[in-house]
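User: Could you check the structure of this?
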Amino acid sequence: RTHAHTHIRTHTLRNISRFIVTGDEEGKIMFFGDDLKLRYWYDQLKEGPIASIAFSSQKILAHGRAFPADASKMARRFAIPEFFIATRSNVIAKCIPLGRGKFEILLREHPNDIQCVVTHPFLSRIFTASHAGIIKMLDYKRKVPLLDRRFPAEHKINAMAIDPTGEYLAVGFTNGAVQILAALDLSENSPKFTMCKGEIKQLAFSLDGHYLASADTDRCIALYKLPEPSPKDEKEPRLRTGSIDIPTGPGFKRGDSLLDSPTMTEIDKPRPAWYFQAKYRSHSKPIQDIEFGLDPETLDQKLMSLGQDRMLVEYDLVKTGDDDLKISNTMKVEQSAVPMCLAWYPRYNGSKEQFLMIGTNMLKLKLYNPITMMTRYTLQAQTNDDMMPIDRILFLPPMDDEAMTEDGEPEHGFMLFSADTWVSISHCSADTNGKGARTHYNLNVYQLLRQPSEFDGV
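Assistant: Sure, the predicted structure tokens are below.
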């Protein structure tokens, strides 16, 4: 028997020079002579089933003894040109056939659906992740990949978030683990946290970047904290170079900089590693959304969580200690509908009240005042007839040329909400007729789009 895996399915077949080349389901590449006897094989790629093989059209360089001997009785030199391999796991690799063969990964894409996507707050960077445990960093202006990182197979990525400073990228896995990475090079900033039993469903950073919250399928909220630098660290600044070698991606050379912003090349003081602070099972049904905000009176950070139990829970971060997450208030925000998501409503046109916008499964958007615990306004989402319940709300930052009030607040803005395969971009505004008159909140659909499959991230 000349073929060592006759029961393994062959996925590709090529004829090169005097050899017949096959790529199989186990990722092996085999070379057969015209007598169908095995001459040589490569099995060290290990990137899934082979989908395609293409050989270089350039002449074979005379490397002499650098070429290996084949499996024939004469042990002839196995001289072939360089070739490229594409696998079913969306990997493209290059093989230099010297010695036992050297494989170089040229491109690695997600082999399955993308589960989450986040953007850098001020650089043209976008991060995507999937259940394959792969994180990719791309430049969305130049449309080229920059970096990627691969976690073990058991670490399926389910959620991501980036802090307001753009320094940290938090990653949540289906096994309940949370990992915080450096957003510029995807290196580890702190040990992996494994305090959650359920799948990490959502991650969120506080507005000052000192807190990270996670929501899992075990109905628990976990809080992580970044302590202030010690006096010793204050005296020992570190220099962030501003020039990072990019190992992957076409169109880049060694020494190209990932840091286009001058603020990212200045001397930064070292910050301590993140640590786990506390956890609390605060809902009786699955958690739908979490959101950080600011207390309008004290300007302290506060955390809100919304569950299918129709409860809005507010956490007191000031009084929270290690292993003791304090709850300051719980509010029932719905009677019949099921809340699906929430977001802080911007103060358009100098509005004095602070609102949470809550989307429900009845396609309604409610403006809820968490201080007075009252629903101040209800808006009907203008959607298509077969649209599913709203599951995400996102307010777009004001454009540079938008009109601003005397207090520096935007007069109007745009909101994006998604539902299953639909996404709507709506114009938001607030009108006040005279001093002390009631404020009217307007929501007009600017554009309604639909894609073939469900949205995994916005």
